[in-house]
Specification:
heterodimer, A: about 120 residues, mainly alpha, B: mainly alpha, 6 helices
């Protein structure tokens, strides 16, 4: 998983533990976001818009620009939060948020997989 | 015709995405990792690919694997990341208490199943035996 081109020798073990290599962080983020986004309302909207207009390329460009902008907003928010909050408190908050998101996503998936009988 | 469609797609998707779970996940990952460049690159690549599937192929991956299964996989991923973050935050108080509660919950499920089984009228479990 770790990117060998990323010169891990520059980091002390504790730093490496906190930061991770570029490749590892990239892969984690990519997998998380991609899986969370499949079948999402945004993807359904892009599907609808492209079917309705018959211009899939334009819809793709517009949707991509919008998603890149929103992920830039997210990254900037995260960086700002990491400066405002002490790291331990931020990690605890983030952990609770992630578990909440996981439970919510799992509930959604479970409900459409096994509809209440 | 070109610009209005581009603008309306941008506005629709951008507004729908603000405050969405995906953005919250990005805030979380970027806040707890010092590599915001990698987080931005990874999330952008994932979102572009997802919108390519939406606009172009009409969800070719979701035709092979059911979207519910993918969502379930994502939820497991979120749970793992969240638990790891809580463990990392590691002050031996709230995090450990929460994990203890989760652990208790996981252990309680088989126990509850066993109890409901012994109470089933077809089976004569401990609960069903008559006292003299």
């Amino acid at each position: 998983m770790a990117d060998p081109s990323d010169a891990p020798s520059n980091e002390t073990p504790t730093d490496a533990n906190k930061a991770g290599s570029f490749g590892a962080v990239f892969l984690t983020t990519f997998t998380t976001v991609f899986l969370a986004e499949l079948g999402d309302k945004t993807q359904l909207a892009a599907l609808l818009l492209s079917a309705e207009s018959g211009r899939p390329v334009l819809v793709f460009v517009g949707a991509s620009l919008a998603l890149i902008s929103s992920s830039l907003v997210g990254v900037l928010l995260g960086r700002w939060l990491s400066r405002v909050l002490p790291p331990q408190q931020l990690e605890r908050l983030a952990g609770i948020l992630m578990i909440g998101l996981g439970l919510w996503l799992g509930r959604q998936a479970a409900m459409s997989m096994f509809p209440l009988s | 015709m070109e610009l209005p469609l581009l603008a309306s797609t941008f506005a629709t998707v951008f507004l729908a995405e603000l405050g969405d779970k995906t953005q919250l996940a990005i805030v979380t990952i970027s806040g707890t990792s010092s590599r915001s460049g990698a987080v931005f690159a990874g999330s952008s690549a994932a979102l572009v690919l997802a919108s390519l599937l939406g606009a172009g192929a009409g969800g070719s991956l979701s035709a092979v694997i059911p979207p519910d299964a993918l969502q379930l996989a994502a939820s497991v991923g979120f749970l793992v990341i969240g638990t790891r973050l809580l463990l990392k935050a590691g002050s031996e108080t709230e995090a450990n208490a929460l994990i203890a509660i989760l652990d208790l919950g996981v252990r309680a499920v088989p126990g509850a199943l066993a109890v409901s089984r012994t109470r089933h009228p077809d089976r004569r479990g401990v609960m069903a035996t008559d006292a003299p």
